[in-house]
Specification:
With 220 residues, the chain is of the alpha+beta class. It contains 7 helices and 10 strands.
Length: 220
């Protein structure tokens, strides 16, 4: 899934000849705290709600203001993980997308990004989650998949992250099986440390609840 497929076409950019008040209206309509500024399809940067509220004259044109605009953006062929990285790096509520010729193509909202990320990580699919602690030198996704598949199950998605240790990491597996007890026993036989597990009922109540709360927060 790449950036051009994630563009939120219901969100408008603002031309430099529009007013501060119009920028604030767009942010309110789009439920974003930032808006992209363009001049004849040339991306100029983004302005924040905080910046706009600090302007004394709400009818002032964006282009007439001496604003310190940051210019976060991703190319249209950027992978969704790169998009997430850019949003995290700049702490913005939307990220502009540029085409191959560096023309403004649109923006990706946090809401749209969250919905699509939920799809590729199979958040809403039934199953369970295992969090395994593994040594860096022993990490093998192929072995983990073999253990899961030996129980007639499949890994729907996986990712790793540092748990604060220099020589171990956490491997998170989303598995398409309701009861993970036999799979957990198999991992135990292979000397994996099971840091946590979420069977379907616990997963749905916890992860889906957190996801719904996150989406509600974005739509406030």
């Amino acid at each position: 899934m790449i950036a051009k497929d994630l563009i939120s076409y219901e969100i408008s950019s603002i031309p430099t000849d529009q007013s501060v008040n119009r920028a604030l209206e767009l942010m309110e309509d789009c439920k974003c705290s930032h808006v992209a500024v363009v001049d004849n399809d040339v991306y100029q940067g983004i302005v924040s709600e905080e910046q706009m509220l600090d302007i004394e004259n709400p009818e002032a044109k964006i282009g007439s203001l001496k604003l310190q605009m940051i210019k976060p953006c991703v190319k249209s062929d950027a992978h969704i993980y790169q998009v997430i990285g850019a949003v995290n790096e700049f702490s913005v509520s939307c990220i502009p997308v540029l085409d191959d010729e560096n023309n403004f193509a649109g923006v990706i909202s946090l809401q749209n990004l969250a919905k699509n990320f939920a799809q590729i990580t199979n958040v809403n699919d039934p199953g369970g989650i295992l969090i395994l602690e593994v040594k860096n030198k022993d990490y093998s996704l192929a072995q983990a998949a073999q253990i899961v598949e030996s129980d007639n199950a499949k890994i729907l998605s996986s990712y790793i992250y540092s748990n604060g240790s220099s020589d171990t990491l956490d491997l998170v597996l989303k598995i398409n099986k309701k009861d993970l007890s036999t799979i957990m026993s198999a991992f135990d036989r292979y000397d994996y440390i099971i840091r946590d597990s979420y069977h379907e009922s616990k997963f749905e109540q916890d992860m889906q609840g957190r996801y719904d709360q996150f989406m509600n927060y974005l739509n406030m």
